[in-house]
């Protein structure tokens, strides 16, 4: 809107208002007196353009976007902490009890014992919000002495930690809330409320799947993996507690019996033949190729909720591999021994298995 209001444009407009019989050339008193004012006005127009963009949801960012969407009841999702199941073992791998609040460290992260699950099994919560706590399972070290404790092991990621919602994700939720009104337990209502829950990445809602009043919600976790049983139970309790199902004791309306399931992870073994550049070996490209394939499969998992089913395509997989430095050509790519594209079920997502080059 203000793109034409440059320094030169504003200055020329000001000079055009000066009588013709006065000296307006560069270096004249009038020119040099008007130039600083024209520069400030040009900066003002730049700021006006920026402020105009911050008013509308499609161009706003940061706090301005948060404030804009909040007018419609949409709140930016704050960062959440990862929650793990961990084993506490003593001598001879005997289950050991530890005090709630005990702290354990690994790779610069600290985990706190938040809840006892059973003998020698505890739920730990990462002190650092965000997805940093979604590290691979492994050993932890106690930060203070605990009598009888020998080893601590992270076993299963119960609820993935999430980073603060970015602008584009918030904008998509805002458009969904405005364009797909959520009301009284319709599909949009379930979708918006479930996806706002901690640990949930996306959901498919299947109404009347087993007769009138039945609803099925199929989830994928916030780290785009198959959700844990603990996360599924957390969502189930929030929607429609098992005790008193259909009585409206959760978010679901009275009369709705909700089933909560997770996506099924399908492990894909990839075999391919590469032509490499001079001096390159398969060992040098093994990890980058695995990363490229993993990124492609991640994009498929991220789009799972918007598609009827996911198809792993050989051509796109090879295109991802060709983007690896040092790879000149790719041939003979197979998925699980088959050279064909792999269509998955409606509730299946692909994860990377073994990559053979």
From TrEMBL:
Baseplate protein J-like barrel domain location: 91-153
Signal peptide: none
Classification via InterPro entries: Barrel_Baseplate_J-like, Baseplate_J-like_C, Baseplate_J_M, Phage_Baseplate_Assmbl_Protein
Taxonomy, superkingdom: Bacteria
Pfam families, A to Z: Baseplate_J, Baseplate_J_C, Baseplate_J_M
Domain called Baseplate J-like C-terminal: residue spans: 269-356
Domain Baseplate J-like central: 182-261
PANTHER family the UniProt entry points to: PHAGE-LIKE ELEMENT PBSX PROTEIN XKDT, PROTEIN JAYE-RELATED
Family: Belongs to the Mu gp47/PBSX XkdT family.
Protein name as annotated: Baseplate J/gp47 family protein
């Amino acid at each position: 809107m203000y793109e034409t209001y440059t320094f030169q444009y504003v200055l020329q407009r000001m000079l055009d208002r000066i009588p013709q019989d006065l000296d307006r050339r560069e270096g004249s008193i009038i020119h040099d007196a008007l130039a600083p004012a024209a520069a400030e006005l040009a900066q003002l127009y730049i700021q006006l353009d920026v402020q105009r963009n911050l008013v509308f949801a499609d161009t706003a960012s940061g706090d301005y976007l948060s404030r804009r969407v909040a007018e419609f009841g949409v709140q930016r999702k704050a960062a959440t902490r990862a929650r793990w199941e961990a084993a506490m073992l003593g001598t001879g791998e005997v289950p050991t009890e530890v005090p709630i609040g005990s702290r354990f460290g690994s790779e610069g992260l600290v985990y706190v014992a938040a809840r006892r699950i059973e003998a020698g099994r505890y739920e730990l919560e990462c002190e650092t919000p965000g997805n940093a706590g979604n590290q691979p399972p492994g050993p932890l070290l106690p930060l203070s002495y605990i009598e009888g404790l020998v080893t601590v092991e992270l076993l299963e990621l119960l609820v993935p930690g999430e980073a603060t919602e970015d602008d584009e994700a918030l904008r998509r939720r805002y458009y969904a809330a405005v364009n797909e009104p959520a009301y009284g337990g319709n599909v949009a209502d379930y979708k918006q409320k479930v996806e706002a829950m901690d640990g949930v990445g996306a959901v498919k809602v299947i109404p009347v799947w087993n007769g009138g009043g039945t609803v099925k919600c199929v989830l994928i976790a916030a780290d785009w993996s198959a959700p844990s049983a603990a996360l599924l139970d957390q969502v189930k309790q929030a929607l429609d507690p098992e005790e008193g199902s259909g009585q409206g004791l959760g978010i679901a309306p009275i009369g709705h019996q909700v089933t909560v399931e997770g996506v099924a992870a399908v492990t894909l073994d990839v075999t391919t033949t590469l032509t490499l550049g001079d001096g390159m070996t398969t060992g040098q490209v093994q990890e980058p190729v695995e990363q490229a394939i993993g990124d492609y499969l991640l994009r498929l998992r991220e789009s799972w909720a918007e598609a009827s089913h996911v198809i792993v395509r050989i051509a796109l997989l090879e295109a991802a591999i060709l983007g690896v430095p040092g790879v000149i050509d790719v041939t003979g790519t197979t998925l699980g021994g088959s050279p064909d594209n792999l269509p998955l079920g409606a509730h299946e997502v692909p994860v990377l298995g073994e990559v053979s080059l």
